[in-house]
Each structure stands twice: as structure tokens, then as C-alpha cells.
Design brief:
The complex is a heterodimer of chains A (733) and B (184).
Chain A (H helix, E strand, L loop, with lengths): L28 H12 L11 E6 L8 E7 L2 E7 L12 H4 L2 H4 L9 E3 L8 E3 L2 H18 L5 E5 L6 H11 L4 E2 L7 H11 L4 E2 L6 E5 L11 H4 L9 E5 L5 H5 L2 E3 L6 H14 L5 H7 E2 L1 H8 L4 H8 L3 H14 L3 E3 L11 H14 L9 E2 L38 H10 L7 E5 L3 H4 L3 H9 L3 E6 L4 H4 L3 E4 L11 E3 L5 E3 L14 H12 L1 H6 L4 H8 L5 H9 L1 E3 L21 E2 L3 H5 L19 E4 L15 H4 L6 E5 H7 L6 E5 L4 E9 L6 E3 L21 H4 L3 E2 L6 E2 L4 E6 L1
Chain B lengths: L5 E5 L9 H9 L11 E5 L3 E3 L2 E3 L2 E5 L7 H5 L5 E3 L5 E3 L9 H5 L6 E3 L4 E3 L5 H4 L6 H5 L5 E5 L6 H8 L2 E2 L11 E4 L1
Parallel strand pairs in B: 1-12
Antiparallel strand pairs in B: 1-10, 2-5, 3-4, 6-7, 8-9, 11-12
Chain lengths: 733, 184
């Protein structure tokens, strides 16, 4: 059969294999429509009678696009994009469309489960909500009594719109130990740009004439509206320069692809600044009036010549020089794209600082086609009075990074301290939809940390690897079955997203608010009181100062204030930095003993006979959550190890053979993909495979898990993890 | 009113191979699971060049809704027909699943639906057109590769696109007269 993933083969050639018509009782509705068509010569609209269309918000990834769910006979048939949803330009990607298979997934968690065998053995018994929640409350209280309330950690996903209730639970229960995803992702990026601009701005991709994306694979790691706006398709002035050790689908769309040596991006950026400063191409008035520290940048940048950079990053000096000139010429409608996930190397904050400074010297701040500070639509917050407990210590990872987020923590630093039991024991884990086993680098260490827990409870919609290693598993309703609080999404064109239930929650799954409320009741009246509201109450409170928001949401599924960007709102005003200006030189960093201007440091070279393992995304999957989705699974049923053609030849390895990948912390076996689309010194595999949970039935036993291989390194300023500093051996399996 | 003639114009330069069209189509048209069951697809064209000088294109496609469809003439039961708007359809009551049409189609646009026991293919989402909506693949596409419309209307977006741009059709030498137009 010709397959979706390999359409080069013709379906017709294989007719012999399945000639027998296996008509089943289930008749596809398309056949019914065509039957009607054949009878009347025209399609009748009666097929849609009794159906309803529901405005809601996608929950398949971070973008939260606007959706219209087409519900037929109580079943969600199709998810269509909401054309009015300006943030995503009225589109819905493969994952968004595959949302129906999240709801009707045979692997869904259906009932509360209590572990019946050893941890990770996969033996469960079905429990009632009462029994499961009684047990959770009992265990939480026991740990709090034996250790302190900080002895229970709370790991949360983000962007479900109901994580706020989980964090509220953590706060009201009295644990400082919450941990979220930023230190596995973009905390270094936010830190680097915020230290410069006082905020993390959004690049105005739509209106930019010259974009440089470094390791930001926007054709596959979809971010709205950037992924849409990166293409003009009209042969216009737009130029896209793409820097990545892999030839991704963004590379295929770019005007230029530069396969940079990983870990050396800062050399490229500093050399660009060098050229722009040395040749006087910078925005002189802008730099003088809106920035501080340019005078210190000039001597600092002097040694960073393109010729020096070429030796580091393996991009020819003449190309660096040319790109720097082109970039400055296109200014201010030019942007060095900040990117999103920035867990690259252990000096990533300084790389992002360098990128921020490069943008600053060409004066693209808060202007069309440049870096624009986000706007946000205000919603009223749910206030509650958290109970006060004496004798609760500070965060266990306190002091592990210079700028540690109080709510997000630093994942790997926290894990190390829990494993060491210092400064105090953490013996309970409450987890809301974060798949820590798959997501935190060095899986063996995460499992070891879980081993030493007295109790683990996971709330999820599917049996993730983390749920698999838990003691109690609670089934949440999926995003298509819930009424969620309104969510204000910031951006150049901010929106309020609206998620309402398209169908009733199936099985015994419950929204997280219900779960938290019923757990709170068992933990005592003080905690329960903070949850004493309905979802309706909350939503009306959110819009109490602007009822039009809810009116718009009900009639259009989205609320926005403007459809065209407004630029320059910060001009003449103080920025949220110490000096109120763009800080090229950071006195704050100097005070904390950090480099006030980014200084290039060399990273370890790839040892002979080894390869650098790269992490990356594709457009079909959101982290670990979608590889087991029936529609998406058939687009990529397994992951492969990308290895450059020349390197494979040297090792005597051939395309399609099984190989073993071994790192200092783990190993995995998967199929080899020999390709020219990667540097000869790197290998890459897609995330989401090599699962431990048999509850992921389509992918169990398939492929390898990158988290099992990555040796975690800590970026000490932001607490972010560095994911591209692991070297692996590849051998025949 | 003048008779309609539906067409899709594709600007493949915009295609990022995200496969939103494929999944949207599967859901909209109840195409069964299975990676050999699909009404539309995106092919990765072979990589051009050698590392580090590379290029690659992506080729989305589906039924060409030919004016002269080879699948029509070979059908022994007249299950295949051309409906208003030029859309080639399969009548599930008449189809016996013999697959001659699959062999005849030069674009490999048809598949056998084991759930219904009949041949299935792209209909430009005829059920959506009937209620004034556009095909699912056209609507959902993040980068708007496809434009759908009536070529008999000189002011339609598809007519204007073809008037303004150079384009090609697939396998014109076969005389099938396809109505998928690829901008060059």
C-alpha cells in the first residue's frame, strides 16, 4: 500500500493484498452523505440537522487556537478553525484536527486507579473517586505531619487553563515546592531578553523584512502567528536566514540555511554585532537615547571579528559579514528572532543577552517589523486567602540559580536536592499532567527520585510514563469536555480564549477544578473555603469590569481589542529595567557577579567516535502528548536516529537498520535514518517514543526516548537545563 | 445562474508539510485509520543537493476532479460519476469495490474503504460546499497553500490567481484535464 509517510509507492501496485471487501456494520457518514447525493442529485443539508457548533479553544499545544467543534448526535465529529481567531490567523494544524482522537482514545484514563502491584508494574485496581481522594488526602497529610508541608512537591503542566487550581492547591496546602516547565524550555530566553528590555517581547514576524531564526524551527515547532507569518509566498522582500545543525522544514523554506556548530551561536551573534558596530551600521540616535552601555559594548565587541567567529561556529566570515550588513540595512524591519525553547547550552542566558543586544543596536524596538512588547487584555483575578502555616521551609531548590522563579523552580536542581534529601526530605509528589519521566532529562535519575517518594499522585487524561509510576491516577476530563476559566493570551494582537464543553465528560473523568475542590474538602475547611466557587462564578468575576468580553466569546468564540498592531507605546516611557532603558550593559548582572556583557565561552568538543545528541520538534507532536494519538501516530509511527550520510558510511551503518545509542546516563534502540539533513557531528531523534507505560498502546515498545539519554547540565543564571551537551555512541543493535 | 466549475489552486511554495490538511480530511470525511487510507496527502520531494547545500519541496495533492476522468470510463457499474460543479464522486450503492478505478487513476487519488466496502476519494468536501463552506483541507491550512473556488466565475479568487500567475497541472499529457492547478 502506498502510505502517507511514503507516498512515493503507488497504492495501486498492491491491490492484490486486500481485494476482499470487508464491509462492517459501521457506515462512514461520508458514505451516507454520498448516498443522499446519489438519490437526489444534490447534497441535502438534513445531515447536519440536530448538530451543534461549539466555540472552544484547542488544547493540543501551547498556542490555544480558536476552534469550532462540530458536534453530531452527541459526538464530536470535526474540529474546524475559528476564522475570527486572529492569533492563529484562522487555521488549525494537524494536532488541532487530531483532537477528536484525544476524546475518543481507547487508551484514555476512565476511572480513578489505585496501584495494586509494585510501582511501575502496571497492576491497578479501579477505585471510586471517594476512595481515591480519601487516600490522596490521607497521604498528603501524613507526609506533612512526618516531614513538613514542603515534603509534598507539586509538578504542574501549563496552558490547560485549569492549572491555576492546582497551583492554588499547592499554595493553600502550604508547599513552596511547585515546579513547572520553564526550566526545561525557555527560562533562559525570558531571563536574557528581560534583563535587556525589562520584558520578553514578541517579534513582529508578519511585518519584518529580514528575519534570522537560530534553532527556532517555526515550520515544525509551530507558534502562532509566527509559523504562519514566516511565509509570505509572494516573492516579496522578506528574507529568512535559518541557522540550525539540522535541515528542518524551516530550512527548506528559508532563503539561506547555515548548519552552525551547536553551542557556538553566540560567536555568530557577537560577530554580527562586531560588524554592525565597526562599520557604523547601528541606529545611532536610537542607541544614544534609548539604551545604556553602548560605550562599553564597543571595546567589548572588538575581538569578536567574523574571522574569529568562523573558527568557532563554522559559518564563513564573509557570510557573517554579509548577513550583518543585510540585517542592518533592513533595520528597523529586521529581527533576530528570540525563539522559544532555549535549553541549548549551559550559558544560554548570555546567548539570549547577545541576541537581545544585536536587536537593540539596530533599533528595532517597539516598531513595525521589529521586537514589540506584548499587550494583554485584563481579566479580574480570583483572589483567595491562603492559610498560613508555621515552620514551612523555603523552596528546596532555593539559591540553585541566580534568578530562580518562585513558582517554576529549577527542575533538575530540585531533583538533585530531593535525591540528596538536602536541605530537607521531599517524600510526596502531586502531579498535574506534567510527564516528568519523559520530559526531564536523565530519566534514570527521575525514576530514582520517584523511587524514594512515599506517595505519588498523577492527574492526567492518559497513562503517561509518570502516571505509570504513580500510586494513584486520577482521570481528568479532556479539553473538549470542560468549561475552563477564560484565558488572556498576550501578544502583538492579544486575545481572550474561550473553552467550553463540546460534549459531557466521558466515563468518570472530571475537570481539575472539581478534583481540587473535592480534595480540598478532605484537607480541611480552610483550604476548602478558597475553592468555594463555581466555574460560572469565576468566569463572571473575570469579566466583571468588562462584560463585553464574555458577550464576544459567546458570539464569536474570541475577544480582541484590535486587529492591527500598535507600535511605539513604550516610547517616552520608562522600560521595566533598572535604568528604564534598554540595558546593553547590565549593571544588575555585574552586581551579581555575572558578565555584564555577554562573553563567549568555548564548550566541550564532540569526542572522537561520538556524536552530539540534538533535541527538536516536528509539526505532528506536542512533546510526549500526541505520539499515541491515532491520527498523528500514522504520520510518524516511530522515531528514527538521524545520522549524516558520511558519518554512517564511516561507521558502516546503513539506512533502516536498528542501532543502539548510548550516553553516559542511558541508552536506547531505534531505527537509523541516514540523511544529509544533519551535521556530520550530530544525531537527532524525535521526542515522544521509547515509553515505559503500556498504557500508550500504539507506541509502547517502539523507538527510543531522548530523555533517557540526555545528561542534564544546569544553566546557572536561569536554572534552565542544557539539552545539547550530551555525547552519544552509535553502534549496530 | 451560470454552472459552477470547482477547482483548487495550490501554491506549494507555502507548504511546510505540517499535514494539517491530511488530518482535517480524515476527520471531516470519516476516512478510516491506516496510513494507506487517505483522500489527500503531502509528499516530501527528494532532497536536492548534498550536505550542506540542500533544498527540498513539499507536494500536497488529492483528486484532480478531471474533466475527462479515466476512473469514470473504467467503472463497470457506473458508480463513478461527475456531479454539478465537476466533482467526481463514487455512488456507494453502485460501487462493487472492484478497484478498476484505483488502477485507472493516474494520480493515485483513490483508496478502498474497508469500513464501507466501497472506493472512496476526495470530493472537495461536497457536503461542506452544499452548505456554503469550503473544503476542510483549504480551510484548515496554516499557510493557506490551497485556494478553492469556481473557475466559471471570472472574479473568483481561483480565476484571479490563474489569470495573474503561471501554473501547471499534473500529467497534462494524459488528456485528463485536471482541475488542481499548481502555481509555478
Amino acid at each position: 500500500m502506498s502510505r502517507l509517510i511514503d507516498k512515493k509507492l503507488s497504492r495501486r501496485r498492491f491491490l492484490g493484498t486486500s481485494t476482499c471487501a470487508l464491509a462492517t456494520a459501521t457506515v462512514g457518514s461520508q458514505a451516507r452523505v454520498l448516498k443522499a447525493l446519489a438519490e437526489s442529485g444534490e447534497v441535502t443539508t438534513s445531515k447536519v440537522a440536530g448538530s451543534k457548533d461549539v466555540f472552544t479553544a484547542c488544547g493540543m499545544c501551547v498556542n490555544k487556537c480558536g476552534v469550532i467543534a462540530r458536534v453530531r448526535d452527541g459526538r464530536i465529529h470535526k474540529l474546524d478553525p475559528n476564522p475570527d481567531y486572529i492569533k492563529s490567523r484562522g487555521m488549525l494544524c494537524a494536532r488541532g484536527n487530531a483532537g477528536v482522537k484525544v476524546v475518543y482514545d481507547p487508551d484514555r484514563l476512565k476511572y480513578p486507579l489505585i496501584r495494586a502491584g509494585k510501582r511501575g508494574e502496571g497492576k491497578w485496581r479501579r477505585a471510586s473517586w471517594d476512595e481515591a481522594l480519601d487516600l490522596v488526602a490521607k497521604k498528603m497529610n501524613a507526609i506533612a505531619e512526618k516531614y513538613t508541608r514542603a515534603g509534598v512537591m507539586f509538578a504542574s503542566t501549563e496552558g490547560t487553563f485549569q492549572e491555576h487550581f492546582f497551583l492554588q492547591m499547592a499554595e493553600c496546602f502550604g508547599s513552596p515546592n511547585t515546579v513547572r516547565h520553564p526550566t526545561l524550555c525557555l527560562s533562559s530566553n525570558i531571563q536574557g531578553f528581560s534583563a535587556t528590555y525589562g520584558t520578553f517581547p514578541t517579534p513582529d514576524v508578519l511585518n519584518s523584512d529580514y528575519i534570522i531564526m537560530a534553532g527556532a524551527n517555526r515550520s515544525e515547532a509551530l507558534i502562532t502567528p509566527d509559523s504562519i507569518d514566516q511565509l509570505k509566498g509572494d516573492g516579496g522582500r522578506r528574507k529568512l536566514v535559518y541557522i540550525d545543525p539540522r535541515f528542518t522544514k524551516t530550512a527548506a523554506k528559508a532563503d539561506e540555511w547555515l548548519p552552525i556548530k551547536p553551542g557556538t551561536d553566540m560567536a555568530f551573534v557577537l560577530a554580527m554585532i562586531h560588524v554592525i558596530v565597526a562599520e557604523g551600521l547601528y541606529a545611532k540616535d536610537f542607541v544614544e537615547t534609548l539604551t545604556v552601555g553602548f560605550d562599553k559594548l564597543v571595546p567589548h565587541i572588538k575581538p569578536y571579528t567574523p574571522e574569529w567567529a568562523e573558527k568557532e561556529c563554522e559559518i564563513p566570515a564573509r557570510d557573517i559579514r554579509r548577513i550583518a550588513r543585510e540585517f542592518a540595512k533592513a533595520a528597523p524591519k529586521a529581527v533576530f528572532y528570540p525563539g522559544r525553547r532555549s535549553s541549548f547550552a549551559d550559558d544560554d542566558v548570555q546567548l539570549r543577552r547577545a541576541m537581545a543586544i544585536l536587536n537593540a543596536v539596530i533599533g528595532n524596538w517597539d516598531t513595525e517589523g521589529g521586537l514589540v512588547p506584548n499587550s494583554k487584555i485584563k481579566l479580574q483575578k480570583h483572589d483567595y486567602l491562603a492559610p498560613w502555616y508555621d515552620d514551612v521551609p523555603e523552596r528546596i531548590d532555593k539559591g540553585s540559580a541566580v534568578f530562580l522563579s518562585e513558582k517554576d523552580g529549577s527542575w533538575t536542581a530540585m531533583r538533585d536536592r530531593i535525591l540528596a534529601g538536602k536541605p530537607y526530605p521531599v517524600k510526596g509528589m502531586m502531579i498535574y499532567k506534567q510527564n516528568v519521566v519523559m520530559s526531564v532529562p536523565n530519566r534514570a535519575k527521575t525514576l530514582k527520585m520517584m523511587d524514594q517518594m512515599d506517595f505519588i499522585c498523577t492527574i492526567d487524561i492518559t497513562m503517561s510514563d509518570t502516571a505509570w509510576y504513580s500510586d494513584v491516577v486520577l482521570p481528568e476530563a479532556t479539553y473538549l469536555e470542560r468549561q475552563d476559566p477564560l484565558e488572556s493570551l498576550s501578544g502583538i494582537l492579544p486575545v481572550v480564549a474561550f473553552r467550553q464543553p463540546c460534549i459531557e465528560a466521558m466515563f468518570e473523568s472530571k475537570p481539575n477544578l472539581w478534583i481540587m475542590q473535592n480534595l480540598a474538602k478532605r484537607l480541611g475547611s480552610e483550604i476548602a473555603e478558597t475553592f468555594d466557587f463555581t466555574m460560572d462564578d469565576l468566569i463572571h468575576h473575570q469579566v466583571s469590569k468588562n462584560p463585553k468580553i464574555l458577550k464576544d466569546l459567546k458570539s464569536n468564540g474570541v475577544h480582541y481589542m484590535k486587529v492591527l498592531p500598535t507600535y511605539g507605546l513604550t516610547r517616552g516611557k520608562r522600560l521595566r529595567t533598572k535604568t528604564g532603558k534598554i540595558e546593553i550593559y547590565s549593571a544588575n548582572y555585574a552586581k551579581k557577579g555575572l558578565d555584564p556583557l555577554p562573553v563567549y565561552t568555548k564548550h566541550a568538543e564532540v569526542p572522537a567516535g561520538k556524536f552530539r545528541l540534538l533535541v527538536g520538534r516536528n509539526a505532528y507532536f506536542t512533546h510526549w502528548t500526541t505520539a499515541n494519538n491515532a491520527y498523528l501516530h500514522e504520520l510518524m509511527p516511530e522515531n528514527t536516529l538521524w545520522l549524516n550520510t558520511t558519518s554512517a558510511k564511516k561507521l558502516g551503518l546503513i539506512d533502516g537498520q536498528k542501532v543502539k545509542v548510548k550516553s553516559p546516563v542511558g541508552e536506547g534502540t531505534l531505527k537509523l535514518e541516514v540523511t544529509d539533513k544533519i551535521r556530520p557531528d550530530c544525531v537527532y531523534m524525535a521526542h515522544g517514543f521509547g515509553v515505559l507505560s503500556k498504557g500508550q498502546s500504539l507506541i509502547y515498545g517502539v523507538g527510543a526516548c531522548d530523555a533517557a539519554l540526555i545528561e542534564e547540565k544546569l544553566e546557572p543564571i536561569s536554572g534552565n537545563v542544557a539539552m545539547h551537551q550530551t555525547f552519544v555512541e552509535v553502534s549496530p543493535a | 445562474m451560470k454552472k459552477k466549475r470547482y477547482a483548487i489552486v495550490l501554491d506549494t511554495r507555502r507548504c511546510i508539510d505540517c499535514k494539517a490538511c491530511t488530518v482535517a480530511c480524515k476527520a471531516e470525511n470519516d476516512v478510516p485509520l491506516g496510513d494507506d487510507k487517505f483522500r489527500n496527502w503531502v509528499s516530501e520531494e527528494p532532497l536536492r543537493g548534498r550536505y550542506p547545500n540542500l533544498g527540498q519541496s513539499f507536494a500536497p495533492s488529492q483528486c484532480n476532479q478531471c474533466e475527462n476522468p479515466p476512473c469514470n470510463s473504467v467503472c463497470p457499474t457506473s458508480a463513478t460519476g461527475i456531479t454539478a460543479g465537476g466533482i467526481v464522486t463514487v455512488n456507494p450503492d453502485k460501487c462493487i469495490g472492484c478497484k478498476y478505478c484505483m488502477l485507472a487513476c493516474p494520480y493515485d487519488a483513490r483508496y478502498f474503504n474497508e469500513e464501507t466496502g466501497v472506493i472512496d476519494k476526495c470530493t472537495f468536501c461536497i457536503q461542506r460546499i452544499a452548505v456554503g463552506r469550503i473544503p476542510a483541507c483549504v480551510e484548515t491550512c496554516p499557510t493557506k497553500v490551497r485556494t478553492f473556488g469556481d473557475l466559471n466565475d471570472p472574479n473568483s479568487e481561483v480565476s484571479l490567481l490563474l489569470a495573474k500567475n503561471r501554473y501547471r497541472v499534473l500529467k497534462p499529457e494524459l488528456g485528463t484535464k485536471p482541475f488542481l492547478f499548481y502555481l509555478i
